[in-house]
Design a protein that fits this description.
Blueprint (H helix, E strand, L loop, with lengths): L8 H10 L7 E3 L6 H9 L4 H11 L26 E5 L2 H11 L4 H21 L4 E5 H6 L1 H12 L5 H12 L1 H14 L5 H5 L3 E3 L5
Parallel strand pairs: 2-3
Antiparallel strand pairs: 1-4
Helix pairs in contact: 1-8, 4-5, 7-8
Length: 208
């Protein structure tokens, strides 16, 4: 899952998680993000290839989230089996409102950051030969069952009707849950955004 901050990547990773896709050995409870693995991808760590090979062996389908340094995924592209990039697109106002909620910075600063990140993302997507599924975050929220069905189809996974219904319900309730989770973290007075993002860590197989 690849996209800028507050663009809808968490909704994508949550849906994949509920579909039974392995999203990391230890992921954040809200964004379903394996921060340690993402940093290894960005830095092209010495252990990265062996980790990818292990996940290829242990999981028929697995994924991860990347919200910056998009081109770094090229370092492991050849090691991935049937890779697919999922990229949500969200309107500018919604993204800036979300970023304003998370960071005490001016809209002007956040706009500049957004444009820079989007240029980096589009440069990678247009130059990459990896298969891509680019979709509207708003459409996913407004038509969750269609979105879930599209993911199931493109990933080729076999899931029960109960699992599909659970995914749809999770998407439908995401807006309030996101806001409530942020303010719960904010009230705890974490000092940095990383502290807020890492406020909840869950081991795999725990409920979100």
């Amino acid at each position: 899952v690849m996209g800028g901050a507050r663009s809808g990547t968490s909704l994508a990773t949550q849906t994949l998680y509920h579909l039974g896709i392995h999203m990391g050995d230890k992921v954040t409870s809200g964004s379903i993000e394996d921060l340690a693995f993402a940093e290894q991808v960005k830095s092209n760590s010495a252990e990265l290839n062996s980790i990818v090979e292990r996940r290829n062996t242990d999981h028929k389908t697995w994924g991860f989230k990347l919200t910056s340094s998009f081109a770094s995924v090229s370092s492991i592209a050849s090691k991935l089996e049937k890779p697919l990039i999922l990229t949500p697109m969200r309107d500018l106002v919604a993204v800036l409102n979300r970023r304003k909620m998370a960071k005490d910075r001016s809209i002007e600063d956040l706009f500049g950051q957004y444009v820079k990140q989007q240029v980096e993302l589009f440069d990678f997507l247009t130059e990459s030969d990896l298969p891509q599924l680019i979709y509207s975050h708003r459409d996913a929220v407004e038509n969750p069952r269609k979105f879930v069905a599209a993911l199931i189809s493109v990933l080729g996974v076999d899931v029960s009707k109960e699992t599909v219904d659970s995914c749809v319900a999770n998407i439908s309730g995401d807006e309030n849950r996101y806001t409530e989770a942020f303010y719960q973290n904010h009230e705890s007075k974490f000092e940095t955004e990383d502290d807020v993002r890492n406020a909840g860590i869950i081991e795999i197989n725990e409920d979100i």
